[in-house]
Amino acid sequence: MKVGRLNHIGIATPDIAETRDTYAALYGLDRLTAVKDFPELGVKVCFVDTGNTELELLQPLGPESPVNRFLEKNPKGGQHHLCFEVADIFAARDAMRARGATVLGTGEPYTGAHGVPVIFIHPKDTHGVLIELMQEPA
Ligand code: CO
């Protein structure tokens, strides 16, 4: 198993509108989607198109949000994860386990903000970086 392209970089923020405006004002990154709520994922999301990849801006939605713990440690927000595409999410999950990595949660792929199945690999396995693997969009 080898990952494909870098699909996006996840960035956690306590204020998605302010963060979106900063990327537009400072870097001219003004091609973006509307902010959308994903209650089942516990986040509000806005995608910023950078040309060769996307930024995925994440703001917690509710007290159970997985992003809350990150913001407790990084109150102003920061880089949260990298997401690589994979050809087969189940084969990738099995390869990660065979290589000794920890797949977060139950390990069952679930539908992420892009509408395709994803898994997350514990940051301890990748020198402190949380990695998302995402089924290549068809
Ligand atoms: Co992501």
Task: Provide a compact summary of the structure.
The protein is 21% helix and 33% strand.
Shape: globular
- Extended strand count: 8
Structural class: alpha+beta
Give the helices and strands as they follow along the chain.
EHEEEHEHEEE
Q: Strands of the largest sheet, in order across it?
A: 2-3-4-1-5-8-7-6
Binned, the helix content reads: 10-25%
Feature tags:
single chain; 138 residues; alpha+beta; 2,3-Dihydroxybiphenyl 1,2-Dioxygenase, domain 1; eight-stranded mixed beta sheet; 3 helices; 21% helix; 33% strand; globular; binds cobalt (II) ion
Protein model, in words:
This protein has one domain: Roll (2,3-Dihydroxybiphenyl 1,2-Dioxygenase, domain 1), CATH 3.10.180.10. It is built from three helices and eight strands, in the order E-H-E-E-E-H-E-H-E-E-E. The protein has helices spanning 16-27, 67-73, 89-98; strands at residues 6-12, 36-38, 43-49, 54-60, 78-86, 110-111, 117-121, 130-135. It has an eight-stranded mixed sheet. The protein is globular, with a radius of gyration of 15 Å. The chain starts with 5 loop residues before the first strand and ends with a strand. The mean pLDDT is 96. It binds cobalt (II) ion.
